Amino acid sequence: MKRDVVALGELLIDFTENGTSSQGNPIMEANPGGAPCNVLAMLTRLGHSTAFIGKVGEDMFGTQLEESLKEVGIGTEGLIKDTQVHTTLAFVHTFPDGDRDFSFYRNPGADMMLSEADIDGEMISNCKIFHFGSLSMTSEPVRSATVKTLEIAKKAGVIISFDPNLREPLWNTLDDAKREISYGMGMCDILKISDNEITWFTGEEDYDTGVEKLMEQYPNIRMILLSMGRDGSSCYQKGRKVTVMPFLQENTIETTGAGDTFCAGVLHYVLDNGLKDYTEEEMKDMLTFANAAASIITTRKGALRVMPSREEVEALISSKQKN
């Protein structure tokens, strides 16, 4: 089956704090998570056909995750269950400002066990966009599976989208992270990167200088999207830059999935308009939609199952333009 977007990577349970018990203990809610599937969930909500490639454990959490993907309409033909290794878990602590700290139970976790033999080449070569992150490059065998998939996508002329989504605790060393993320940048057409990631990777405090460095080092990248949280987002193409401010919410709960929702908003625009040299007005339209979608998800617990509809996003944009 042809899909608009296929993503590969981690599918896991995010245990997020949801109040305290009568004994004063934190109550944890088991939310389906994982950046690649958050991106797919938003794209599916916007009417695009999607599928996921990855591995979960043959356990209660693996079953929950499979059912969650089916519920939101993400294709599961590339989802494999591991009988030996449990589903990966992440415990998320949310700070008062909505930022987060992660503790991972993944040594190993099922998502790390995806192998080259698990990859269906036709799924990749038949899609329009292939999306991935760096968590599938932290260790073997999933690193080799990722490389194989990227090679298939490149050969088939598929648009490749990459979000490094750096999670420092999951790497043996940050030098390993830099090496693998550099490989991902060398393979992608669209790069979505956050402000702290670009400073870490390039050593530049000035984001424009950092982007210039990346464009010089990785000439294959056709568009760089920089997410800056409360400072909005920027799009860079061929020496041109457009910045759009965020839609700040008074009732933000947490930022889980905001970057993924933003990324999906960008890929939605690319699917509708093709990947080309956009005018500044087009870049502005793309960022405005992506920022608004990301803003809405910060008001909801979890991400994958609560993505906003196109109508909700457009209503938020419309309400802000009137003010």
Description of the structure:
The protein is α/β, with parallel strands linked by helices and 323 residues long. The protein contains ten helices and 13 strands. A nine-stranded mixed beta sheet has the order 5-4-1-8-9-10-11-12-13, sandwiched between helices. A hairpin with a 2-residue loop joins strand 12 (233-237) and strand 13 (240-244). Helix 6 (195-202) packs across helix 7 (207-217) and helix 9 (280-297) crosses helix 10.
Topology:
Blueprint: E1 5-8, E2 12-20, E3 26-33, H1 35-45, E4 50-57, H2 60-72, E5 75-82, E6 89-94, E7 100-105, H3 121-125, E8 129-133, H4 142-156, E9 159-163, H5 174-187, E10 190-194, H6 195-202, H7 207-217, E11 223-227, E12 233-237, E13 240-244, H8 258-273, H9 280-297, H10 310-322
Parallel strand pairs: 1-4, 1-8, 2-6, 4-5, 8-9, 9-10, 10-11
Antiparallel strand pairs: 2-3, 6-7, 11-12, 12-13
Helix pairs in contact: 1-8, 6-7, 8-9, 9-10
Q: H/E order of the elements? A: EEEHEHEEEHEHEHEHHEEEHHH
Average residue-wise pLDDT: 94
Strand order of the largest sheet: 5-4-1-8-9-10-11-12-13
- Strand-pairing-aware structural class: alpha/beta
- Spatial shape: globular
The total beta strand count reads: 13
- What is the end-to-end distance? 45 Å
As a percent range, the share of strand residues is: 15-25%
Taking all Cα atoms into account, the compactness measure Rg is 18 Å
The major sheet is characterized as: 9 strands, mixed
Number of helices: 10
Uncertain runs are: none
